[in-house]
Design a protein that fits this description.
The chain has about 170 residues and is an all-alpha fold. It has eight helices and no strands. Keywords: Membrane, Transmembrane, Transmembrane helix.
Length: about 170
């Protein structure tokens, strides 16, 4: 935990990294607030989804957008220090967090399985319903997994930021 706080303090001194984090948070907070309740709207995305934002999904949206913003802060700082940033876990977590509510109750899975059924006919009737039910029942687990992946990416980039500058890029 001290590594993360130390790295955040260090990275927050960099103006470009600080602005990048603010912009990332301001972009992803409404995106997550709109996307996470999509399982309640049949996979539709729009400002109307904010009516279905519960305390749980609101906290997930806030935590995910905050962790993504802080990861961007560290990534920009690390890149400006001339090191390599790690973004694969953050990308995986961000995608999992956005796709989980969309796959639950939208027509995306049946359409994908319908396309795959042209190649493998047994899939057309076997999986879409049960798979959507599984995603719906375990949506919180998927969102927790996405958040954990984002926090791991934050930790990885914090470790890199604390390793010290290699060659500063301005």
């Amino acid at each position: 935990m001290t590594i993360i706080f130390g790295a955040l303090r260090r990275a927050a001194r960099d103006r470009a990294a600080r602005w990048s984090a603010i912009v990332a948070f301001l972009i992803f907070a409404p995106v997550y607030a709109i996307a996470l309740p999509a399982s309640l709207t049949g996979g539709h995305l729009g400002w109307m989804n904010l009516r279905f934002l519960s305390v749980e999904t609101g906290l997930f949206a806030l935590a995910m957008s905050l962790s993504l913003g802080l990861t961007v802060l560290l990534m920009v700082f690390v890149l400006r220090e001339g090191q390599r940033a790690r973004g694969t876990l953050a990308t995986g977590g961000a995608l999992l967090g956005l796709l989980t509510p969309l796959l639950c109750c939208s027509p995306i899975l049946p359409i994908l399985f319908g396309l795959m059924a042209s190649v493998w006919p047994a899939m057309a009737t076997a999986l879409p319903g049960p798979l959507q039910g599984f995603i719906s029942r375990h949506e919180t687990m998927f969102l927790l997994t996405a958040l954990i992946l984002m926090l791991l990416a934050l930790y990885q980039n914090a470790r890199r930021a604390m390793q010290g500058p290699s060659c500063r890029i301005d």
